[in-house]
């Protein structure tokens, strides 16, 4: 088992914590009706098992555009043991970043993991400020900032809010299955204005663009019947925002689904389990893992439907020796009636065995 | 044309001669094989130990560039974020290493507490398949065992490992056995660093930081700047040097073993040389005939040298095989330090070192080639006509070499002993031994002549004949004695050195063990006698007084082995409890006194009255050397300070060892039981009486020197080979003479007695010379080599009984070999022997 593999299985742990036996009292449950208060809720919620801050977006530069994805996870591997050591691994911080460049044809990605502590890795409460060694996602006076100095690529970006936060589900209570307990607190910040620099290989260039931030925390997110999920977060060209996901069962059928659409003027509409369905238009088979990813789908939400097409096919996180989490996470284009209406990110997990096998 | 003549000649000369004397061939080959085998064994054992030690260090630190370490008691973990945040540092991996005392069974186990996320960044293969259990390892009280540890302790996944912490027992669940791969071959256990700190009561402590630097950071400059910023008592070294530092401790021991191997190779070479010389002499008539037939002397030299190379090659290949085989055996049986305890905890695996083996092989072949070349030169020079006549062999040896070179070498040996060590190794000491040995070899013929002239003339015909024969051929005798001189003097010197060491150690032990009972929580870092136990001990009814010692290891200088710090409650009424080798002078100005071992005196050039700065408990303290004492336990140096000073500096009141004086009339056995009860512990504390400790120490000593006994036996066998070669060559050469004597009425029995006497006299001469040369060599060993390697002094003690016994045995064996050789030389063909003068 090489380094990448254990890292992957850790990521798997984060995404599917339910597979580990825990007592209900060990972690705080997600319940409906708790109001999400920003900006305090932008910070970490250590009483919940798992939490992530997830930024995706498109960046323009002199050359062709690029897609990027930056994720910081905080996870509690075990209920606190009470070990007084400063090394006590109460929380692990995991980070994952990737850049999509169409000419390159596949992802460049990097990942890190460390236990929280000693000021080297942490997720601050009350304020979005997550650090893992020299990887950093933080909050400034009027912006958020991310610094990812990877080997293959480096990102140094600032994000400015242009729209109010978008609460997902019932005012931020987002259900992931039929059981009310499998849910997360979840809000998004669409249409973030991005500026900064991106280095790919040795080529550094100023960039500008639009991004989407998801912040989600929970103690039980995936039900045992589910094997993975498909998700999109799209900034529409007209200023609207669209988030949709479906949890998939082992046979590929839809286990649960939901979507939120908000117009540029701020009218928000949520679509429940019964109103959302995904149809596969085209699949791409990964030559590395053999997984079949639906890289072109039509999403039906109530009476309307959108087409989501991968910007290019191979945006699978390249983890050949993986035991658990292999996933596809990449830039995608949204169209309606054959006309491009927005850009964003598509994520597909659980296509190579169930997450965290 | 020339080539085919040459080949035909070669076949005739070599093949004919070889067929005639298979025994001589076998002897030559086995001599070289034995020498090469010995050299190979010792070299491989050492090489494996070093390779193993190195890989043990590397397997944990992976591709780290810099290693920061400090005293064995560790250092404050605050250094971790400080170094991790430096811009030059890419990965900082904190490690807490504990020599954990196993509870309810013997021995320790190295437990490595690490942060897997950092350690894996340096060493991705660390956990292997057990990486799947990574999250389980983050729970407290879980541990992973290396395959070697699981085998050694007979434990499996799911079992419970019990360790001793202080005087308490803690249970750890074994959640995985690490795969038996290349990475972790040593018996050790891995724990999460948080769990290790908690379990072993080491909160806030680290023992090591492994750093990988960013590619753009200059290693040397970064190392320097990190080193300068470290708190007192910590050092930063390049990762490559870290294992060298660990190995520094055993370096002198290993070099000494290698020298021993070299000596055995040399002994083998001398034997081959003498065999070849004698055989060339015996074939002088053949050579003269060939010369008369027109073979050039150069061709003859080439032929004989070629023969030497061939024999050498055969012997060397046999020796290499035998050596590799016995190295495996030795490592399997005694471990890679051959029982010396230098690599405790390192599982040995014989590794092959092609370069070293090639050098040994070259030495073996070269010795054999030289053995052919030198006599061939001589044979080539001789006038062919004279060589064809009987008795010419002796003429070749009549020109005795002058005494000068031998005497000069002996003198040079004496001068060399005055020179200091080179880079901590007694190189000139070894050179002195070599000079004495070679010098003595050169003086052998003169010695034999002088000694025989001095012997009385016997009445018995056979005795008279034998002595006359030796007197008439001192050259022959000198060559026969070469091998026995080399091997016996080696044995004598080793025996005297070991005896001196052993008796000095025994005296020393009597001195350093003044109390009635010794209680020890264990030799590990996880066991100690805490405050509560100390109170219980003091209140035991039979206990009159208790003194405690606390041990730590300090890094005083990078590249040097750690120095042991002993903080001891001083004994007011017994100031001589330390085996001082200097006068004691307590500092008058109220400064803190410190007593240093001889090794510290030598390594750090410190003397009584000198001041020394010690990093204790993260701060620096200045002490004044009040005395120098002999420490046979710790070669890296030991410094002893009063325990109250140590406690004041560190706040650490734990003790590793208690010296217990009993009330008058208290029986030690009953007192031990009472103390155990008072402490409420069972096997967690060792309570021993001085006699037992002394016995254990001497047993350990004997184990350490076990390998040298094996080498001595091998050397003696080689020496006896030498005598047998000499006498049988003589017997063969003198077949005509024996034939005539037989005709004249001497029975075979009388002939045999003559020859046995000759052999016995030769043996006695060899034993005497060996005793003399060996005694000189032992002086060099004790006073120069030992001192320069290990820095401790000892008194000279001579093991009279073993030396006498061995000498007599040698004389007897020499006589016996000679008597047997005449039989094989003459066989039933005594009549033909007379006719042989052609």
Question: Quick one: how many beta strands of chain A?
Answer: 22
Largest interface: A-B, 28 and 31 residues
Mean pLDDT reading of chain B = 80
Low-confidence stretches of chain B: none
Residue fraction in strands of chain B = 5-15%
Count of DSSP H/I helices of chain A:
1
Low-pLDDT stretches of chain A? 1-6, 16-22, 319-324
Secondary-structure arrangement, i.e. CATH architecture of chain A: Beta Barrel
What can be said about the biggest beta sheet of chain B?
9 strands, mixed
> Looking at the chains present, what oligomeric state does this protein adopt?
heterodimer
Query: What sort of overall outline of chain B do the alpha carbons produce when their principal axes are compared?
Result: elongated
What's the gist of this structure?
The complex is a heterodimer of chains A (357) and B (838). With 357 residues, chain A is mostly beta strands. Chain A is built from 1 helix and 22 strands.
How would you explain this protein's 3D organization?
The complex is a heterodimer of chains A (357) and B (838). In chain A, the strands form 2 sheets. In chain A, strands 1, 2, 3, 4, 5, 6, 7, 8, 9, 10, 11, 12 and 13 form a 13-stranded antiparallel beta sheet that branches. A 9-stranded antiparallel beta sheet of chain A has the order 17-16-15-14-22-21-20-19-18, with no helix packed on it. Chain A starts with a helix and ends in an 8-residue tail after the last strand. Helix content of chain A is 4%, strand content 52%. Chain A has a single domain (3-349), classed as AttH-like fold (Beta Barrel). Mean pLDDT of chain A is 88; it is low at 1-6, 16-22 and 319-324. Chain A is built from 1 helix and 22 strands. Chain A has 357 residues and is mainly β. The longest helix of chain A is centred in the N-terminal third of the chain and has 13 residues, at 3-15. The two termini of chain B are 30 Å apart. Chain B is elongated. Chain B is α+β, with helices and mostly antiparallel strands and 838 residues long. In chain B, the strands form 3 sheets. Chain B has a 9-stranded mixed beta sheet. In chain B, 58% of the residues lie in helices and 15% in strands. In chain B, β6 and β7 form a beta hairpin. The interface between A and B is medium-sized, with 28 and 31 residues.
């Amino acid at each position: 088992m090489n380094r990448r593999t254990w890292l992957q299985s850790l990521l798997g742990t984060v995404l599917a914590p339910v597979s580990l036996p825990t007592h209900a009292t060990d972690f705080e449950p997600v319940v409906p009706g708790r109001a999400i208060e920003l900006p305090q809720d932008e910070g970490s919620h250590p009483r919940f098992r798992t939490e992530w801050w997830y930024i995706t977006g498109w960046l323009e530069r002199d050359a062709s555009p690029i897609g990027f994805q930056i994720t910081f996870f905080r996870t509690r591997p075990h209920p606190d043991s009470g070990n007084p050591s400063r090394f006590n691994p109460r929380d692990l911080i995991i980070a994952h970043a990737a850049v999509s460049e169409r000419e390159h044809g596949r992802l460049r990605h990097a990942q890190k993991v460390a236990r929280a502590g000693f000021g080297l890795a942490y997720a601050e409460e009350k304020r979005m400020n997550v650090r893992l060694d020299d990887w950093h996602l933080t909050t400034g006076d009027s912006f958020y900032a991310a610094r990812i100095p990877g080997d293959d690529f480096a990102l140094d970006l600032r994000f400015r809010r242009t729209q109010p936060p978008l609460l997902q589900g019932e005012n931020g209570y987002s259900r992931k299955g039929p059981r009310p307990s499998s849910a997360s607190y979840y809000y998004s910040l669409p249409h973030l204005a991005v500026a900064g620099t991106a280095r790919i290989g040795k080529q550094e260039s100023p960039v500008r663009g639009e991004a989407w931030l998801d912040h989600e925390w929970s103690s039980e997110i995936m039900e045992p019947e589910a094997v993975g999920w498909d998700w999109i977060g799209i900034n529409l060209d007209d200023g609207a925002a669209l988030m949709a996901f479906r949890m998939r069962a082992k046979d590929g059928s839809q286990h649960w689904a939901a979507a939120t659409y908000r117009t540029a003027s701020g009218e928000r509409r949520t679509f429940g389990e019964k109103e959302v369905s995904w149809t596969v238009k085209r699949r791409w088979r990964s030559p590395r893992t053999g997984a079949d990813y639906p890289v072109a789908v039509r999403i039906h939400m109530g009476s309307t439907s959108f087409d989501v097409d991968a910007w290019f096919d191979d945006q699978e996180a390249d983890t050949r020796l993986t035991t658990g989490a292999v996933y596809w996470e990449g830039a995608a284009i949204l169209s309606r009636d054959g006309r491009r209406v927005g850009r964003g990110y598509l994520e597909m997990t659980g296509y190579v065995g169930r997450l965290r096998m | 044309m020339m080539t085919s003549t040459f080949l035909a000649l070669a076949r005739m000369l070599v093949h004919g001669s070889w067929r005639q004397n298979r025994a001589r061939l076998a002897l030559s080959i086995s001599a070289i094989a034995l020498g090469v085998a010995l050299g190979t064994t010792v070299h491989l054992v050492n090489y494996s130990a070093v390779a193993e030690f190195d890989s043990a260090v590397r397997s944990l630190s992976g591709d780290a560039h810099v290693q920061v370490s400090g005293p064995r008691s560790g250092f404050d973990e605050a250094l971790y974020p400080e170094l991790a945040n430096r811009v030059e540092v890419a990965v900082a991996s904190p490690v807490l290493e504990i020599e954990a005392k196993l509870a309810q069974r013997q021995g320790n186990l190295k437990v490595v507490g690490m942060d897997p996320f950092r350690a894996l960044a340096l060493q991705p293969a660390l956990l292997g398949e057990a990486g799947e259990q990574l999250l389980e390892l983050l729970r407290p009280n879980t541990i992973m065992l290396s395959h070697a540890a699981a085998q050694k302790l007979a434990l499996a996944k799911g079992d419970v490992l019990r360790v001793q912490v202080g005087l308490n027992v803690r249970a750890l669940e074994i959640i995985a056995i690490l795969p038996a791969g290349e990475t972790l071959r040593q018996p050790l256990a891995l724990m999460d660093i948080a769990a290790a700190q908690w379990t072993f009561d080491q909160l806030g402590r680290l023992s090591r930081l492994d750093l990988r630097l960013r590619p753009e950071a200059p290693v040397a400059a970064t190392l320097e700047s990190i080193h300068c910023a470290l708190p007192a008592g910590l050092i930063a070294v390049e990762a490559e040097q870290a294992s060298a530092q660990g190995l520094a401790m055993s370096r002198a021991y290993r070099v000494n073993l290698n020298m021993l191997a070299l000596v055995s190779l040399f002994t083998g070479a001398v034997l081959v040389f003498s065999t070849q010389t004698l055989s060339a002499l015996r074939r002088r008539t053949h050579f003269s005939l060939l010369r008369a037939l027109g073979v050039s002397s150069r061709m003859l030299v080439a032929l004989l040298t070629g023969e030497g190379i061939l024999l050498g090659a055969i012997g060397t290949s046999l020796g290499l095989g035998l050596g590799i085989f016995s190295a495996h055996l030795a490592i399997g049986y005694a471990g890679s330090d051959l029982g010396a305890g230098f690599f405790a905890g390192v599982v040995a695996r014989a590794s092959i070192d092609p370069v070293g083996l090639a050098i040994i092989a070259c030495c073996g072949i070269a010795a054999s080639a030289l053995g052919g070349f030198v006599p061939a030169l001589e044979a080539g020079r001789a006038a062919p006509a004279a060589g064809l006549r009987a008795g010419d062999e002796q003429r070749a040896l009549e020109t005795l070499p002058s005494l000068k070179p031998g005497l000069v070498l002996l003198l040079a040996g004496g001068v060399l002993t005055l020179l200091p060590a080179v880079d901590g190794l007694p190189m000139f000491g070894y050179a002195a031994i070599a000079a004495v040995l070679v010098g003595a070899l050169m003086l052998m013929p003169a010695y034999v002549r002088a000694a025989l002239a001095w012997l009385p003339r016997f009445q018995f015909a056979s005795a008279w004949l034998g002595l006359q024969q030796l007197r008439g051929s001192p050259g022959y005798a000198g060559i026969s004695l070469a091998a026995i001189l080399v091997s016996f003097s080696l044995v004598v010197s080793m025996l005297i050195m070991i005896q001196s060491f052993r008796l000095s150690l025994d005296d020393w032990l009597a001195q350093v063990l003044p109390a009635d009972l010794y209680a020890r929580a264990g030799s590990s870092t996880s066991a100690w006698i805490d405050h509560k136990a100390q109170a219980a001990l003091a209140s035991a009814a039979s206990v009159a007084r208790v003194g405690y010692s606390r041990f730590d290891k300090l890094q005083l200088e990078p590249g040097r082995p750690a120095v042991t710090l002993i903080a001891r409650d001083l004994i007011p009424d017994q100031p001589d409890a330390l085996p001082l080798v200097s006068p004691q002078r307590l500092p008058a100005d109220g400064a803190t006194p410190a007593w240093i071992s001889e090794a510290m005196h030598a390594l750090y050039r410190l003397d009584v009255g000198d001041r020394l700065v010690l990093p204790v408990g993260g701060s620096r303290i200045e002490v004044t050397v009040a005395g120098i004492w002999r420490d046979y336990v710790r070669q890296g140096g030991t410094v002893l300070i009063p325990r109250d000073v140590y406690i004041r500096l560190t706040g650490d009141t734990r003790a590793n060892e208690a010296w217990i004086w009993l009330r008058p009339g208290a029986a030690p056995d009953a007192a031990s039981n009472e103390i155990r009860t008072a402490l409420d512990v069972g096997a967690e504390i060792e309570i021993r009486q001085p006699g037992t400790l002394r016995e254990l120490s001497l047993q350990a000593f004997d184990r350490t020197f076990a390998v040298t006994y094996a080498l001595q036996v091998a050397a003696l066998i080689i020496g006896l080979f030498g005598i047998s070669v000499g006498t049988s060559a003589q017997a063969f050469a003198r077949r005509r003479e024996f034939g005539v004597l037989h005709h004249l009425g001497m029975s075979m029995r009388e002939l045999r007695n003559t020859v046995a006497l000759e052999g016995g006299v030769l043996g006695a001469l060899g034993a005497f010379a060996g005793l003399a040369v060996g005694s000189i060599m032992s002086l060099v060993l004790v006073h120069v080599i030992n001192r320069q390697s290990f820095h401790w002094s000892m008194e000279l003690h001579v093991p009279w009984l073993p030396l006498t016994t061995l000498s007599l045995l040698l004389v007897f064996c020499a006589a016996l070999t000679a008597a047997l050789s005449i039989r094989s030389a003459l066989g039933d063909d005594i009549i033909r022997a007379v006719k042989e003068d052609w």
